[in-house]
Sequence to fold (526 residues):
Amino acid sequence: MRSHNAKHAKGQIGLLQATARGAMVAARTILPEKSMNAPPNPASTRIARYRNLIGDAWSPARSGETLPMVDPSTGAIFAEIPASGAVEIDEAVKAARKAFDEGPWGRMPAFERGRLLMKLAQAILAHGDELAALESRDCGKPTRQARADVSATARYFEFYGGAADKLHGETIPYLAGMTVLALREPLGVTAHIIPWNYPMQIFGRSVGASLAAGNACVVKPAEEACLSLLRIGELALEVGFPPGALNIVTGLGETAGAALTAHPAIDFISFTGSPEVGTLVQQAAAKNHVGVTLELGGKSPQMLFDDADLEAALPFAVNAIVQNAGQTCSACSRLLVHRPIYDRVMDQLAARFAALKMGLAETDPDCGPLISARQQGRVRDFLGEADAAGLPVLARASALPGTPDTGFFVPPTLLGPVPADAQIAREEVFGPVLSAIPFADEAEAIRLANGTDYGLVAALWTRDGGRQMRIARAMRCGQVFVNGFGAGGGIELPFGGVKKSGHGREKGFEALNEFTATKTIVLNHG
Ligand code: NAD
Fold:
């Protein structure tokens, strides 16, 4: 796990020097109260100061300490967030408990909850440009990706808004003279630990489902990127969410995150992030006997057979690893290629990789920067190991003119052939690096595809209908795409992992099962 030093190495270059936890910066320019969560003007050198949302109030950390927010494209600090800890988390959990136990949120009819979620979806769309610009600056996302994220986030709130009043329970046939009801009830207060790679989308999928089910939420976003969520929190209040239904507290994982997952008054934890922290979160959940969903990333394969439509498949093979600079839990970082077409595929793919452009997020390149200096260092270390092992680099993308060397860039890189047991073919890199691995036949493709510790998604390209189904059924993972690919699937499609990729399902109706408990009522009426 990372150190504080490593985490805040992301702010090495900028308006302020941020080196370690000790370098939590003092407040600089404080924006007017009303616009405290308004997006910072990119041309401004002022540091926008953000606050926590607790109940219906905006507040700094009690200590006054802040964490710097760094633009990954340039390395410059442009905003600050509260460096919260156990005190602020406790206040937020209490606000959520009150909202759930005493109302009005906990007593609101389901259709009204749904209506509020729909209104929030509308507000997100209405502020789409602003939210996309914020997410793009905060995460280094190319503009197109940030806009797609806004749209997906709104869809989560629409989908779950529509589902809120359709969570019917069941009646169960039982003994004569008895009627049995199985009610679907909210859990209470749910904790949401959000990562930095898709802050808005992961917030939408997790918080959208939980609010629809009637829970009150406490969100701890990633310290690297969280500004869009604070802005959405503001929009939630504007559209009429009652105090305490949604609380957002920023801070380090080791302090605010750990305090939230260990809090005795939460009823469930939804976590997306690294397997190492996933273990800690599960241990915290076990101590309080609460449920947890873990979405921990993957090493997902994409298989190309010799009868595949390569024209259709190759753009997906590239995008599945270059999207969001490879920082996607369901990125297909392994390309398994049937030997008869291996050389042809590599030639075509190398040309596609070499033509990719990397640059400042706001210039909307094919690939933006990684989130932090730490993540850049991690990906470079993987590439260094691959180089030391003599793995051939088939192509590397170039940077657009004007790409600052202070940004956290790593060019999209194609490696092949890569032995299936090489470190870079087994471990999650979380960067734009594709490992091509040849296979001889269907049996070997299945063995290689299932041959890592992870199991999140898989994709295969073949025109053979029997093979499509045989492989789809043989995959040990949560989602399989045949002749297509979409990272993580749509809003409606259940998503989650097996093995080291985690457990529990998000998205679709299935997520609502995670955020509710069944209560069985047996009525003996004679
Ligand atoms: P991380 O697991 O440390 O961070 C994810 C979230 O967990 C953040 O909000 C963080 O503040 C919080 N957190 C950290 N420590 C915590 C603790 N002790 N208790 C509670 N919450 C805590 O991930 P990272 O260090 O930012 O990234 C490391 C690697 O994890 C990446 O290189 C990538 O491989 C993987 N990752 C996966 C995903 C995914 O979508 N599955 C997302 C981010 C990172």
Observations:
- The longest strand covers residues 178-186.
- Confidence is low (pLDDT under 50) at residues 1-35.
- The chain has two domains: 20-167+188-263, 300-491.
- The chain has 16 helices and 23 strands.
